[in-house]
Amino acid sequence: MTISTQIGGLVYLITLLLVRNNSPRYRLKRFTTFSLLYLITTILFVPIIAPIFGREKIKKFEYVEARTFMTDLMNRNYVRPELNTSLQKIATGLDKKYPGIKLVYLDANFPFINKFPLLPHLSHSDGKKIDISLIYTDENGKLTNKKPSISGYGVYEGPKPSEYNQIEKCLDKGKWQYDFPRYLTFGIINSELTFSEKATKDLIQEILKQPSTGKLFIEPHLKTRLNMKNQRIRFHGCQAVRHDDHIHFQLK
Ligand SMILES: [Zn+2]
Description:
Layout lengths: L1 H4 L2 H11 L7 H24 L6 E2 L6 E3 L2 H5 L4 E2 L1 H17 L5 E3 L23 E5 L2 E2 L5 E2 L21 H7 L21 E2 L1 H13 L3 E5 L2 H6 L7 E2 L11 E6 L1
Parallel strand pairs: 2-4, 9-10
Antiparallel strand pairs: 1-3, 5-11, 6-7, 6-8, 9-11
Helix pairs in contact: 2-3, 5-7
Bound molecules: zinc ion (ZN).
Zinc ion (ZN) binds next to strand 5.
């Protein structure tokens, strides 16, 4: 629980102290107490404590939304204030170009403690990192905020036969985890969607326009397909996971 939500383990320990082992309906009481305490902590206390660690919740407004409410419920939506400012600007820029199209975020960082990694993203440990969904068109060719995976991960815009295939190279090196998020979709939805090269490229350009943006990761074949040459777009390495289902970027 601590690994997936950071505070879950601690809340569970408090629950064990509060609910006596010999009380009738122990399991039910333990479950309700835990859920209640977890919700209260997540909604009321974590946002108050996070600024001590230099982080705050991602500010949602018209143009910024989470792919799934689970991201927020599991406290995976904390960033440094500077990144929050960037997100607002990127989303506003995107909406100007494509009215109604939102910046959809996936995993960011936990609220507390540097170097506490947010698995499976080893580097999301300092409040500076965030993953963003690619943009798609619907069956009528219109841009949409829908995404092809419930979690936002694991449905890939893979290399075409003529494109450079980094995925094969990493898997050949025995890096089995490279492809692992295909098991973390929590369900594949909206199969009618098509990857929008143009809107995704514009989104990446908005991200790179921010002076605070450091590195940005997408899979090499997508960088080539979108014809992008910016030095800050890097290959993340085979020890990471593939980045043709989302964009990762980070503060300098
Ligand atoms: Zn990432």
